Write a sequence for this structure.
C-alpha cells in the first residue's frame, strides 16, 4: 500500500506542495485565467506575461488546493517560463498523456529534461480521480493563453 | 408516545452489530486488499440484503405498472407501492398517507415546494429564511425563486461550534417572512437543529416551515406531527434504501391547495382539451410512472430500520460519535469542525495543513472510505474559513473498530507528509 502512495507523494511533490514556487499575484499580467475543480473545490489563478514574439516571460499563480495540484502548478511555472506559447501547449499534451496513459504506453522523455522533471507526477495514473488535480493548472494555463477567463475541470479530463 | 417507541424501549438489549453487518453485503467487501471501512454513509448509505431481495422479487414476480391495469400483477404492484407509502407514513408519523408524496430525492422534494407552493403563495418583497449550514439543494431553489419573484433571502447564522443560533434566527423573522427552510441535521457539522423551536417561532411569525431531513431521518426518530413542520424532505438512498426515490411530506391542507408540480399521466382527474382537473392527493404530485420498485425498496429499508429499533440505532451511533470524536481529538494537528452539543454521527475535520483530498486518497489505500471536499455546502465552508474538510459519517453498521482504523490510517497520512 505504501509503495504506490510514496510514488505519488514523492519528496519533490511534497516540497513543491508546501513551498510553491512563483506563488504570487503580479500587478500587470498580460494574460490570466482562473481554474476550478468544482468536485473538490480546488481553485487557482494563473498569471502570464506573454511577449510579442509569443514567449512567456513571466508565470505566477495563487490558489488553494491539494498537494498534487499545488505541486503541479508550482512545477509548471518553473518549466514554462521562457518557453514560447506553442512549446507550452506541446508540453501540456505530453504531460496529459503521461498522466492518463497506462504504464506500458508512457511517452518517452527522449532526453527532454522538462518532461523528465514532470514525470514525478506520473504516479497519479494509479489514482484516476486525482488526475484532474495534476492537470488543472495546465488547463488553466492554456485558458490564459487562449484568453479564456475561467475553466472548470468538470467538463472533461 | 407511539407504540413503536414503547416497544423498542421495553426491549432493552443493544443492537448486535455483527448481525447487522451480516445483513449488508457491502460490509464484507475488500478494497485495495483491505477490509472496507465505510465512513461515507452521509453521502449515501449501503443497502441491507432485505432491500435488494425485495426489489429483485418484485421485478421477478410482482411487477407491472401501477394504478392502471385491472389484472393480477398490476393490482399486486399497486398494493406494494401504496403499501410502501403506508410504511413511510408510519416512519415519519404523518397523520395521513395522502401527505406522503414520492419524489426522486430530497432535492426534488425541495424543488417541488419551491415551484408548486412558492410560485403560488409568494409575492415580491416576501422573505425566505434559510440557515448558514444548508446543503446547496436547500439554497439554490430559493435563490432562483428569489431572482424570479423579487423575494428576499435571509440567512440564519451558526456559531463557531456549529450551533444554530435561535435568538439570531428569531430576530430575522418579520411579518414578511413567508417561509423558513432549514436543515434538520447538517451534513457537514452534524448539528441537530432545534426544529420544534424553529417551527414555533416561524409559525408565530406566520411563516411556513420546510425541514430538510436528508441527513436527519437516518440518524434520529422523526415525528413530523410532533415537530409540527409544514413540509419535510427525505431522500431514500441515505436511508439504506435505493437511489431514485425520496419523499416529500406536506400537511394535507397545504398540499391540497397547491397546483401540481409536473403534469401528464396519473395526476389528472379528467382531461378534455378545454379543461383538466387534478387528481386528489397524493397522485396530483406523482405525474407519470413513478419509481415503483425503488419505492417498495425504500419501504423495505424503513421496515428494516424500524425492526432494529430507531432508538437503538440512535444510541449505537451516539456511542460511535463519542468514541470517534475522542479518538480523533487525540491526533496531533487534527481539528474537528462542528462541536454542537446536540449532534449526529458526522465528523468533519482537517489534519494540519494537509489537504482533505490527499488525506482521502491515502486512507483509501487502507480501505477507509471518507468524503473530502466542500460537501455541497460552499457558503458554510466560507463561514468556517476552510476550502475543504474530510468527513467521516457513521451508519448503523459501523463499529468502534472502524473509528480505530480511521485513526490508524490518519497516522499513515502524517507519516507520508512528514
Ligand atoms: C442536508 C442535505 N440535504 C439535501 C441533500 C440532497 O440529497 P439528494 O442528493 O439525495 O437529493 C443532501 C445530500 O447530500 C444533504 O446532505
Amino acid at each position: 500500500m505504501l509503495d504506490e502512495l510514496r510514488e505519488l507523494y514523492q519528496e519533490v511533490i511534497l516540497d513543491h506542495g508546501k513551498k510553491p514556487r512563483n506563488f504570487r499575484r503580479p500587478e500587470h499580467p498580460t494574460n490570466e485565467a482562473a481554474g476550478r475543480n468544482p468536485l473538490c473545490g480546488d481553485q487557482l489563478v494563473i498569471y502570464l506575461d506573454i511577449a510579442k514574439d509569443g514567449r512567456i516571460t513571466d508565470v505566477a499563480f495563487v490558489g488553494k488546493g491539494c498537494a498534487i495540484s499545488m505541486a503541479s502548478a508550482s512545477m509548471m511555472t518553473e518549466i514554462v517560463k521562457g518557453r514560447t506559447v506553442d512549446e507550452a501547449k506541446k508540453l501540456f499534451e505530453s504531460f496529459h498523456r503521461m498522466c492518463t496513459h497506462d504504464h506500458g504506453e508512457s511517452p518517452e522523455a527522449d532526453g527532454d529534461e522538462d518532461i523528465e522533471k514532470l514525470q514525478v507526477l506520473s504516479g497519479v495514473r494509479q489514482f484516476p480521480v486525482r488526475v484532474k488535480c495534476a492537470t488543472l493548472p495546465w488547463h488553466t494555463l492554456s485558458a490564459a493563453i487562449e484568453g479564456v477567463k475561467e475553466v472548470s475541470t468538470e467538463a472533461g479530463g | 408516545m407511539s407504540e413503536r417507541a414503547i416497544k423498542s424501549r421495553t426491549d432493552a438489549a443493544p443492537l448486535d452489530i455483527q448481525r447487522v453487518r451480516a445483513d449488508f453485503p457491502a460490509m464484507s467487501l475488500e478494497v485495495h486488499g483491505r477490509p472496507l471501512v465505510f465512513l461515507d454513509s452521509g453521502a449515501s448509505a449501503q443497502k441491507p440484503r432485505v432491500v435488494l431481495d425485495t426489489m429483485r422479487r418484485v421485478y421477478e414476480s410482482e411487477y407491472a405498472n401501477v394504478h392502471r391495469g385491472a389484472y393480477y400483477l398490476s393490482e399486486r404492484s399497486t398494493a406494494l407501492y401504496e403499501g410502501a407509502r403506508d410504511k413511510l407514513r408510519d416512519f415519519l408519523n404523518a397523520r395521513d398517507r395522502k401527505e406522503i408524496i414520492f419524489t426522486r430525492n430530497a432535492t426534488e422534494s425541495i424543488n417541488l415546494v419551491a415551484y408548486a407552493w412558492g410560485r403560488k403563495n409568494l409575492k415580491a418583497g416576501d422573505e425566505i429564511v434559510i440557515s448558514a449550514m444548508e446543503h446547496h439543494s436547500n439554497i439554490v431553489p430559493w435563490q432562483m425563486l428569489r431572482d424570479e419573484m423579487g423575494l428576499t433571502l435571509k440567512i440564519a447564522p451558526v456559531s463557531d461550534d456549529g450551533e444554530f443560533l435561535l435568538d439570531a434566527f428569531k430576530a430575522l423573522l418579520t411579518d414578511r417572512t413567508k417561509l423558513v427552510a432549514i436543515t434538520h441535521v447538517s451534513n457537514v457539522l452534524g448539528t441537530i437543529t432545534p426544529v420544534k423551536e424553529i417551527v414555533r417561532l416561524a409559525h408565530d411569525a406566520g411563516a411556513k416551515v420546510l425541514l430538510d431531513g436528508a441527513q436527519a431521518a437516518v440518524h434520529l426518530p422523526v415525528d413530523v406531527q410532533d415537530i409540527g413542520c409544514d413540509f419535510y424532505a427525505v431522500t431514500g438512498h441515505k436511508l439504506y434504501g435505493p437511489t431514485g426515490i425520496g419523499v416529500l411530506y406536506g400537511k394535507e391542507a397545504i398540499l391540497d391547495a397547491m397546483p401540481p408540480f409536473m403534469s401528464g399521466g396519473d395526476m389528472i382527474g379528467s382531461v378534455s382539451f378545454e379543461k383538466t382537473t387534478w387528481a386528489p392527493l397524493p397522485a396530483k404530485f406523482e405525474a407519470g410512472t413513478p419509481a415503483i420498485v425503488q419505492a417498495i425498496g425504500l419501504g423495505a429499508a424503513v421496515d428494516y430500520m424500524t425492526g432494529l429499533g430507531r432508538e437503538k440505532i440512535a444510541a449505537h451511533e451516539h456511542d460511535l460519535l463519542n468514541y470517534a470524536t475522542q479518538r480523533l481529538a487525540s491526533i496531533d494537528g487534527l481539528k474537528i469542525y462542528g462541536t454542537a452539543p446536540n449532534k449526529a454521527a458526522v465528523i468533519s475535520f482537517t489534519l494540519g495543513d494537509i489537504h482533505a483530498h490527499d488525506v482521502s486518497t491515502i486512507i483509501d489505500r487502507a480501505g477507509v472510505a471518507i468524503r473530502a471536499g466542500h460537501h455541497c455546502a460552499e457558503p458554510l465552508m466560507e463561514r468556517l474559513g476552510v476550502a475543504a474538510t474530510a468527513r467521516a459519517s457513521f451508519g448503523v453498521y459501523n463499529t468502534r473498530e472502524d473509528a480505530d482504523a480511521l485513526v490508524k490510517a490518519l497516522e499513515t497520512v502524517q507519516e507520508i507528509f512528514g
Q: What stands out?
A: Residues 20 and 397 of chain B are 6 Å apart (CA to CA). The domain at 3-41+309-417 of chain B is CATH 3.90.1150.10 (Aspartate Aminotransferase, domain 1).
